[in-house]
């Protein structure tokens, strides 16, 4: 009985510690508008995805991301033509202040060209 209670307490502490170290994505989540007048009109950010859309919210690009540290993400680049394919992973920056957001090394175009053109994208909250 004591062993079971000890294991339960240990598992509970581990779960709490993992949640405590989780980096919040709340400041990045929402609908954003591209500042530069090319490529995606809107960018929708969820807790784990960055989605590039046109003005009618048709999805053209979807990238999975993982928070590594404050203002650092691991960006998984995916092409919609090959839904199960991954281009590669990239560690880059994401910075939010007030109603603005900047993501480094992002594919800012609606057209899938080879080699891909990755650059900083600047957004404002819609």
Share in helix: 10-25%
How are helices and strands ordered from N to C? HEEEEEEEE
Q: What spatial order of strands do you see in the largest sheet?
A: 1-2-3-4-5-6-7-8
Mean pLDDT: 77
Task: Count the beta strands.
Answer: 8
* Low-confidence runs of at least 5 consecutive residues: 16-20
Shape annotation: globular
Summarize the biggest pleated sheet. Answer: 8 strands, antiparallel, barrel
The secondary-structure class comes to: alpha+beta
Q: What is the alpha-carbon Rg in Å?
A: 18 Å
Strand content: over 45%
Distance between the termini: 56 Å
Summed up, the helix count is 1
Task: Outline the structure in words.
The protein has 126 residues and is α+β, with helices and mostly antiparallel strands. The chain is 16% helix and 48% strand. It contains 1 helix and 8 strands, in the order αββββββββ. It has one helix at 2-21; strands at 30-34, 42-45, 49-53, 59-69, 72-78, 86-97, 100-107, 118-125. The protein has an 8-stranded antiparallel beta barrel with strand order 1-2-3-4-5-6-7-8. Strand 1 (30-34) and strand 2 (42-45) form a beta hairpin. The longest helix has 20 residues, at 2-21. The protein is globular, with a radius of gyration of 18 Å. The relative contact order is 0.18.
Write the layout of secondary structure elements.
Layout: H1 2-21, E1 30-34, E2 42-45, E3 49-53, E4 59-69, E5 72-78, E6 86-97, E7 100-107, E8 118-125
Antiparallel strand pairs: 1-2, 1-8, 2-3, 3-4, 4-5, 5-6, 6-7, 7-8
């Amino acid at each position: 009985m004591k062993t079971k209670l000890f294991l339960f307490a240990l598992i509970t502490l581990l779960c709490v510690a993992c949640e405590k170290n989780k980096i919040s994505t709340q400041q990045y989540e929402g609908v954003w508008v591209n500042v530069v007048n090319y490529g995606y009109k809107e960018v929708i950010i969820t807790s784990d995805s960055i989605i590039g859309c046109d003005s009618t919210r048709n999805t053209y690009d979807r990238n999975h991301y993982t928070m590594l540290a404050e203002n650092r993400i691991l960006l998984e680049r995916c092409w919609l033509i090959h839904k199960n394919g991954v281009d590669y992973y990239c560690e880059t920056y994401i910075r939010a202040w007030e109603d603005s957001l900047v993501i480094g090394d992002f594919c800012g175009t609606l057209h899938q060209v080879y080699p891909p053109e990755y650059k900083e994208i600047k957004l404002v909250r819609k």
